[in-house]
Write a structure and sequence with these properties.
Shape: globular
Number of domains: 2
Number of helices: 18
CATH class of the largest domain: Alpha Beta
Number of strands: 10
CATH topology of the largest domain: D-Maltodextrin-Binding Protein, domain 2
Strand order of the largest sheet: 2-1-3-10-6
Radius of gyration: 22 Å
Helix content: 40-55%
Length: 442
């Protein structure tokens, strides 16, 4: 038998996932007998559509959780995967036609696009919140429509500055600047030494939306005010657009067409030395290093993470990705859906799953502060408080169907992309965004 290092690693990962599923099964069976709020319907089967994994160990851990649920309840769960940008349109179509997967695991305020098509999961959310120290405030905003929970915010992806420590040192910086002016100077310096930065400006639901909203909010700009009145056409927004253009001008060419995977690839290929992302770039470099790639081993040692710099508003304006899980009202098995959601969020499952995610995913409730993942690697630390630092999709305004529509239509992202690429002046870009927002918020 030709047992290579790579095949041994794959075998070890598979064995680890199997061991996790086996260790969970006993606890899961006891849970089904004593703690399950909703007994699944006779003959229930479930289908879940989620975004395609970025870290294999996260998927392995999640599938171990799924296997334990099936072993304990007898309910098979088929897990489908799609590209991150494809979940929202598929969920919207399913909600409109009343047919499709029983559950969707999407981004940001997706459930609010069709809140009346989402199962009421208030009792499950209250149980989890009371048992585990309370939900993060942003999780409540994303999960609730009025007084009713329409989804469980199951995790967050901390969108951080990913950078090469050696590159910023070569550019003359000992650490990541904490303010926007210093951050711009770092980007300019990286360009001068031939080790540029770059962030997605294409229709990138995760990384693209994350950085452009940070940029807008850090300068005091907002799409709407607290009463959902459109206020995007403002001096503060113009200042954000000028700042974004200054960044773009010293970035690697081509970012206007980048989606959510381009920055990962460019960073690992040493085409860019600073970008925004979760910690999946670091995990990918570590995985390659474990398979004997010495270049990736050196890169992993050199990678670090930082919070976004603070702009003229004087406080953090980060936009981390919330991942809500919703059940659809057309499902034949609503009790099974609720049972799965509860099982997924019990700490005995949630902790090992997030540990497998290696800080690419972070917790949504207070008890997650003590999960083992946060002591596994000091480079994970900036991801820990994502749920507590993030602003929500509505900015100053509400998180509801209108905010979800503005995100889905890339109103802010398109405005900044048009100004950065020179397709529009800042004033014209603001006016177009204003008209788009007024149609949504009428």
């Amino acid at each position: 038998m030709n047992l290579t290092r790579r095949s041994l690693l794959r075998s070890t990962a598979a064995t680890g996932a199997l061991a996790m599923a086996t260790s969970l099964t006993g606890w899961a069976k006891a849970w089904a007998q004593t703690s399950m709020l909703h007994a699944p319907e006779e003959g229930a089967t479930l289908q879940l559509l989620r975004w395609r994994r970025f870290i294999q160990s996260e998927e392995d851990s999640f599938m171990a959780l799924v296997a334990a649920f099936t072993a304990a309840t007898g309910v098979p769960v088929e897990v489908l995967s799609e590209g991150m940008d494809d979940v929202q349109p598929k969920a919207s179509v399913a909600a409109n036609v009343g047919s499709g997967p029983d559950m969707f695991w999407g981004l940001y305020s997706l459930p609010h696009l069709f809140s009346d098509r989402c199962i009421d999961v208030t009792d499950v959310a209250d149980y989890i919140g009371n048992k585990y120290g309370g939900w993060a405030p942003s999780a409540e905003v994303y999960g609730k429509s009025g007084d009713q929970w329409i989804a469980l915010p199951v995790a967050y992806n901390a969108n951080l500055i990913n950078y090469r420590q050696s590159a910023i040192a070569e550019a003359g910086f000992s650490e990541m600047p904490g303010d926007t002016e210093g951050f711009l100077e770092l980007n300019r310096a990286l360009n001068r030494i031939g080790k540029p930065a770059g962030m997605a400006l294409g229709f990138a639901s995760g990384d693209g939306n994350a950085w452009v909203h940070w940029c807008l909010w850090s300068h005091g700009g907002n799409l709407v005010d607290a009463d959902d009145n459109v206020i995007i056409n403002s001096p503060e927004t113009e200042a954000a657009l000028v700042y974004a253009k200054n960044l773009y001008d010293v970035w690697i060419p081509g970012t206007a067409s980048w989606n959510d995977s381009f920055n990962n690839k460019a960073f690992l290929a040493e085409e860019v030395f600073l970008t925004n992302n979760g910690v999946s770039i670091y995990a990918a470099a570590q995985n390659a290093a474990a398979e004997g790639d010495e270049k990736m081993a050196a890169m992993a040692e050199d990678i670090n993470h930082a919070y976004w710099p603070v702009g003229p508003v004087g406080k953090p304006t980060e936009f981390h990705i919330c991942y809500p899980l919703m059940g659809m009202t057309y499902t034949k098995y609503p009790n099974a859906v609720k049972a799965f959601m509860q099982f997924m969020m019990e700490a005995e499952n949630y902790g090992p799953w997030l540990n497998g995610a290696r800080a690419y995913l972070s917790h949504a409730y207070a008890a997650g502060e003590d999960f083992a993942v946060w002591t596994a690697d000091p480079k994970f630390a900036p991801a820990k408080p994502a749920a507590y630092r993030t602003l929500t999709a509505g900015g100053l305004g509400s998180v509801g169907e209108k905010a979800a529509s503005a995100l889905a239509d890339f109103v802010v992202l398109s405005m900044i992309a048009n100004a950065c690429s020179g397709r529009s002046t800042p004033q014209d870009a603001m006016r177009v965004a204003e008209r788009q927002a007024q149609r949504i918020y009428r």
